[in-house]
Fold:
Amino acid sequence: MVNGLEAQFENLWGQTSGQVRAYMFCACRSWADADDLAQDCYLRALRGWNQFNGTGSRKAWLFGIARRTRADWFRRGGKKATVVELAGVDKASDDPKGMDEDLAEAIWQAVRCLDDKQSEVIHLRFAAGLSYAEIADAAGVPIGTVRSRLHKGLKNLRQRIGEREYGA
Structure:
């Protein structure tokens, strides 16, 4: 890279590395694998840096690459996580956020039970911290679809967690 491009890439990495890592962790449940997937994502972004067409944000573009990196990982034989510990997803570190570990486990077990489209928007929103517009850009769907999937996914999570907590 030349001149400002290196600085732009480093700036994007600095702003998003913890979010990308957390998003990848939701797929593989291993910080080592999440780091490998994040590295692969950034290498792909670096190789395709000039392919960004300027529509949407660079962050949303990066998460589009992250989505494809995860999908490729699954196709290569990566297994879907059985449980993802929300307490461990702290955007930049492995430190718990103080959430009750049993509740965190129940939440992410419930997320695993959602359909792929609902769980994806939940991962992008809460693990990666993307806005609705950024999720829409990354997933290539209208913002209304993101809102709908998130609403339905959260409704399903409340039902599942309520059933667990109250034996309903």
Observations:
- The helical segments are 4-28, 31-47, 58-75, 101-113, 116-127, 132-139, 143-166.
